[in-house]
Amino acid sequence: MSVLINKNSKVIVQGFTGKEGTFHAEQMIEYGTNIVGGVTPGKGGSVHLDKPVFNTVKEAVDKVQANTSIIFVPPAFASDSIMEAAEAGIKVIVCITEGIPIEDMVKVKNYLKSYDCTLIGPNCPGVISAEESKVGIMPGFVFKKGRVGIVSKSGTLTYEAADQVVKSGYGVSTAIGIGGDPIIGTTTKEAIELLINDEDTDCIVMIGEIGGQLEADAAHWYKSIGSPKPIIGFIAGQTAPKGRTMGHAGAIVGGENDTAQAKMKIMSECGIVVVNSPADIGKTVANLLK
Asked: Binding site: which residues?
């Protein structure tokens, strides 16, 4: 079993015929993802990468029963694309777009409360269920099937963690790149909860960053449920100066609890096995799962 997506997920690409949409759709199809079509307004009725193109998401849902969407739409229009997908009945929406205005995401977050769907991102690498389905931009060859789940704010550290897990003799069930923006659809805690409840995940790697409260919230929740599944945690940005945005728009230290050191302390106190370097993730997983 996997979470969010699997080999049966019917995936459409919003922004299908654009440069990014085309490139990553090709990669996803090659990985084995069940891409059933795409959406580019004004190009409905045409064919792209041997898949049908639709003018609207609703049309894609009606005609090819799409239930999952990945969005490669420019920042100015991406929030509308997310809301359109939700309204059309898409259950899992993955938004890759970086640079969506915070004001737009406030509206999206509020809008999605009326719909039964899960938004991953924006500004994220997506989701991959190893050797089944890739709805994202991650290098698929890194991910081998196994029983370690990954939740990460950072795209590149998602791949790094997966590579280390595999090289340690284990594999990945599902990796969820939640995104690094201040306002995202699925929080660290919500992603961790999906993997805690997944019977085919034995261990979780949680990668966070400075800024915000997501990791602390996840850690307190993990402590409260007393789950036997171990979590290995790492926080990026340990040397970041206070008050400066580092990389992601959400990675900015506001108060004393936003620092890497404060987050690592909270995580450790809540029973998470904290590593000081991403280089230690693989061997720590191996030690815990022996």
From this structure: 17-20, 43, 96-98, 159
